[in-house]
Amino acid sequence: MSVTIESQIVSDVIILDVAGKFDVGEDSLRHSVKTFLAEGRQHFLLNLVGVPYLGSWGITQIISSWKAIRSMHGTMGLLAPANAARDVLQFTKLDTVFAIYRNEAEALQHFAESSRLC
Length: 118
Known about the structure:
Blueprint: E1 4-10, E2 13-19, H1 28-38, E3 43-50, H2 56-71, E4 75-79, H3 83-91, E5 99-101, H4 104-117
Parallel strand pairs: 2-3, 3-4, 4-5
Antiparallel strand pairs: 1-2
Helix pairs in contact: 1-2
């Protein structure tokens, strides 16, 4: 099963619900991010609850998306990665780079507070 991505906008935050495995060559995450960036969107939340594991290609997709978002002065957080995916994020120390949220309400509150500080 390759990755699928559904999107929704909540309080000016693009929530990308990612599910499945990142197959090598799969670039739908980067494509989705670039499309929303072209529309002027800046705040992204990647819901990883449906991603059972992050391999090197999945990590590459997340980092590439994050770099594109940062280049447009945007922000990105990760929502509820599954245990195996969280382990990979911890092992690679990417949990120190990305804000990781337990639930959507917590993430949206953080985004709202951050935008008020700007």
